[in-house]
Design a protein that fits this description.
By secondary structure, this protein is an alpha+beta fold. It contains 5 helices and 8 strands. It has helices spanning 27-34, 50-65, 114-129, 144-152, 183-198, and strands spanning 12-13, 17-21, 69-76, 81-92, 97-105, 134-140, 156-166, 173-182.
Length: 205
């Protein structure tokens, strides 16, 4: 098992997408596409105004410095444009686990093959490079699009965190649904199935 080196500038890419470490300079690349309220509906942090986006990116970059998170900026090679961000977090080399989340894309990139390309590269890095045992995911219980996207890449539902975060309207609390993929599942069928889906021209989540 290899260690995730937070000081290293990892580049994950294929013919369709490129993931590179997120830096403060990227705020200008994300500002236009982040100005979409739909992106932030189910996220606790907001970034649809300059100050909010600057805070959002700054926090992610700072968390990388303290080895808490490893954020990426997503570049769509087919559209020749920056598409959004994603990140690793809750990493433990000792336990062989990591989580993936804080993912969002601009509206022009949703409903395309972008997400599956990103997830393939990130899963490949997790299991084939770092040789970790599992990767975890989570979603707001009402975020049907995100839940469907997780299932479509091969995630398995494994539980509910009850009353985990405040509700969208500020009244009461709501659940978080948890998913995961294990290394043996990646090797046995997730990798091959996801690879085949990347060759499809159909619209995907």
């Amino acid at each position: 098992m290899k260690a995730l080196d937070f000081s290293k500038e990892y580049i994950l890419e294929n013919d369709n997408v490129r993931l590179a470490p997120l830096h403060l300079d990227h705020v200008k690349n994300l500002l236009k596409i982040s100005n979409d309220p739909d992106i932030w509906t189910y996220l606790l942090e907001k970034g649809n105004e300059y100050k909010q986006l600057l805070t959002y990116v700054s926090k992610a970059v700072d968390n990388r410095k303290i080895e808490k998170e490893y954020p990426f900026i997503v570049y769509d090679k087919t559209k020749k444009a920056y598409a959004g961000t994603t990140r690793f977090y809750n990493y433990s080399k000792e336990l062989g686990v990591i989580k993936l989340g804080h993912t969002w894309y601009g509206k022009d990139f949703r409903g395309t093959q972008l997400n599956k390309n990103c997830k393939y590269l990130l899963l490949e890095f997790t299991f084939d490079n770092l040789e970790l045992e599992r990767i975890g995911f989570g979603a707001h219980i009402e975020n049907e699009t995100s839940i469907a996207a997780m299932k479509s890449i091969g995630c398995k539902e494994e539980g509910i965190l009850r009353s985990f975060i405040p509700s969208l309207n500020g009244e009461g609390r709501v659940d978080i649904i948890l998913f995961s993929i294990l290394k043996n599942e990646w090797q046995a069928f997730v990798k091959s199935k996801l690879s085949q889906k990347l060759k499809s021209k159909s619209i995907e989540l």
